[in-house]
Amino acid sequence: MTSAAVETERPTVELRIGSERLTSGSGGVYQHIDPTTGRPDADVPLAGPDEVDRAVQVAHAAYLEWRRTKPADRRRMLMRLADLIEDHAADFGRLAAMDNGTPVGTTSAMTPTAAEWTRYYAGWADKISSEVTASLRADGEFSYTLAQPWGVIGAIITWNGPLISLAMKVPAALAAGNTVVIKPSELTPFTAGNFLDLAAQAGIPDGVINAVTGGPEAGQALVEHPLVKKISFTGGPVTARKILRSCADLIKPAVMELGGKSGNIVFADADLDNACGVGTMFSVGALSGQGCALPTRMIVERSVYDEVIERVRAITGFLKVGNPFEDDTVSGPVVNKQALERITGMIDRAKNSGARLITGGERIGGDLADGFFLQPTVFADVDPSSELAQNEVFGPVLSIIPFDTDDQAIEIANSTPYGLSGYIFTTNLRRAHRVAEELETGEVLINGAANLGVTRPFGGIGISGMGKEGGRQGLEEFLRIKTVSMV
Ligand code: NAD
């Protein structure tokens, strides 16, 4: 394959501990595979418990200064970082294409969102206030709260959106006066280095943000470190359970941003151009289906069911799957061989269990045969209780399910153990709000409202997790309340 993916040089991955940059770690070496070509393209140094300990010690020392840094100075530095992120959108695009095969066009579109998350939390840095809970005038007692940083935050992120995951955690933590040790996924080692370089350029002192790329061993060491006062985790429920078990022993708080199996209810009165465009693009197109909050179950009113299936099939046919370095590519490969095999396994079982394959269902051959490329895949007549409808695929696979009444649609949407996002398409305002109230999810997006608006708290319920990122609540996750009282 004559792709730019092969020609583009990979940056050296370093562990970043304060001002130190290490090209080797006690956790060994991970051989990164380019998902576009299936070929090894970088040796990634992995942090072990030693480097994690050093990073946490450095972050703790930095915290003692950073928490006393004037809030307005923190705001200025984070504002500069936001501008720098925006200015470097093209770099982040290339890095994400190398990391996990995300098309450059997708990252270019998402980088302003990452900059906006940074800018939003920069704005909070000098607006954190406390409240007087009892005044002397009332009953002789004067009491007030202090919203204070926790200290060192352990930020463990996954591989599907390395830049946006950083932007959803780090600026809020820093605005509140914490410092962070990030553990990027070993699968996506390239983006974090650029983020840290820009943070340094923005004037954020060494040690305030540290990055120890590594695997489970490094993640566990971070969770268990006594100087790490809170964990902010993005990943899957299996890892979340392990982390929460450790946190239980240590009585350590944690925010858990986990997966989803979000229902997208399409009523017959919906604008079907909009419903089918959004519902297809964001299930089998964008990120090759590798997004936590994507609308992966399309629950369609029976009177428009056949029409919707035909529209989805047609839109799927226009999605360009291919080299992520090409500007017009919509979908790149999935992240690695294991993911490819897991997804094709689920597709094969769905084919054999009665779901009707509408389009796709195979690995892509030809020029793309060496990479981990899958056809955008759509199934109709999916049993709401089947494996495909109940489990996160994390790949380009959409399930379409019919319904007859509003209550039935709600019941199907709520029938998984997940509860991250809910989607509704209808032109009936009253119905939209009634159904939104009934959905057991952390958010509801109506008629194509976009994901990841920074002013909105984002985060799921059930096995989609706990805690919030975004909005004031996202800031409050990084603050602890102390009460002061005197008589
Ligand atoms: P994962 O849970 O396997 O890994 C996530 C991170 O945890 C990685 O950095 C990994 O190295 C680390 N890790 C692994 N074992 C660990 C341990 N024992 N202790 C500490 N850290 C450990 O992630 P995955 O399942 O490959 O990621 C995909 C999942 O992430 C999907 O479920 C997806 O929906 C979810 N996700 C959620 C959001 C959100 O904001 N809600 C965003 C993106 C992805």
UniProtKB/TrEMBL annotation:
Cited SUPFAM superfamilies? ALDH-like
One Pfam family this sequence matches: Aldedh
**Aldehyde dehydrogenase domain spans which residues?**
28-484
Q: Which GO terms describe its molecular function?
A: oxidoreductase activity, acting on the aldehyde or oxo group of donors, NAD or NADP as acceptor
InterPro entries membership: Ald_DH/histidinol_DH, Ald_DH_C, Ald_DH_N, Aldehyde_DH_dom
Keyword entries, A-Z: Oxidoreductase
Q: Which family does it belong to?
A: Belongs to the aldehyde dehydrogenase family.
Annotated protein name in UniProt: Aldehyde dehydrogenase
